Amino acid sequence: MKIVLVHRHGPGQFVHLACHLANAGWQVSFLCEAMNVRLPGIRTLRQPATPPPPAMPFAQYHQEVGLKAAKTLDNLVREEGVPDIVYGHIGWGSMMFARDVLPETPLIGYCEHYYHATGRDVGFAPDEDITLAKRTQLRLRNAAQLATLDQLDAAISPTRWQKSAFPVAYHHKIGVCHEGVDTRRCRPNPNAELTLPDGRVLGTGDQVITYVARDLEPYRGFPTFMRAAAKLAKENPDAVFVIAGGDGISYGQPRADGRKWRDVMLDETGIDQSRIHFLGQIPHDQLIRIYQISSAHIYLTYPFVLSWSMLEAMACGAPVIASNTGPCQEVIRDGQNGFFTDFWDSETLAEKMAFCLTRQNDLGRMRGQARKTIIDHFDLELCLDKQTSLLERMVSADMGSSARQRM
Length: 407
Prior knowledge:
Distance between the termini: 22 Å
Structural class: alpha/beta
Order of helices and strands: EEHEEEHEHEHEHEEEEHEHEHEHEHEHHH
Largest sheet: 7 strands, parallel
Number of strands: 17
Strand order of the largest sheet: 5-3-1-6-7-8-9
Low-confidence stretches: 402-407
Strand content: 15-25%
Radius of gyration: 22 Å
Mean pLDDT: 95
CATH architecture of the largest domain: 3-Layer(aba) Sandwich
CATH class of the largest domain: Alpha Beta
CATH topology of the largest domain: Rossmann fold
Number of helices: 13
CATH superfamily of the largest domain: Glycogen Phosphorylase B
Number of domains: 2
Helix content: 25-40%
């Protein structure tokens, strides 16, 4: 079987699936602008990069990305023939013209996030002004996804909440299946240790509050976390705060003054910096150790895409304190497999962190339920089986249709 995976920056959400299919004997090709990691047995079909907005308007950007992806795909077809199936992220326009290159090939889309002017991430901050310009920009950002969905045979969204954002008219096309969490790697380890940059070694017996995000920014609740951490630090001299994440902006907008949110919040809170450890963006094995030693893992998010970090922390048995926003409400059951807190309420967050530190012996059942939730619904093997089954069914159906046409 020959599959082409399409993503602006590979491998993205397809990393596990790509390796799984390659190991099963599929010919796997990645069509992308850049490949962030090299995967054995998987080749890259590199398309020319397109400068993202604000270098050009969204509509033009999506069109440029789509046309370059289509040309790259067309070159592949001319040189090697038609692939059996194409599965691609629809968010940047990369799949917009795939049907024009492959009129009969099964096409599947990955549906990550559909924009709304109200009720989701946009407008969630109380001080955000949703102007007409913002509303029209969001509609243009969705235009590429709608043009793509119209041509797809099927689509996958990682959670029910993320699927619910897309227009109801397309729900019949969109199934729900997460990329999966490797619960064999992400598992409790009572002997886990983490060595900090200053040489101190932390283990499961220490009072460790953890926070992980791709970047330390408002979309993932970093300011709220820092205010709560500063309050707890004053009340509990044994609490240690371990933070993983970069200083860039993955979502939302940079500060107008150009300052990093880490510096801003250190200045605002005045927290004792010997108590808080910033590790930056670190390898995955270190992230797992962070989750394994965590006395309480904090996951705050706007109503936006759900991060792998929360699910991996739960798989490691960490007590998770999560914001009571849509992405988390699908997974967390308050008081059973985690705790909820208001996204903006740093006082309550500090209280719940303190509760976890002082009641560690009472949280064994919650830790077990957290891991069970991930095993039952997000286990990697389970998710890979579902995705592979869909791909095989679609290829088989297409081959059967082609055979009937030849008869």
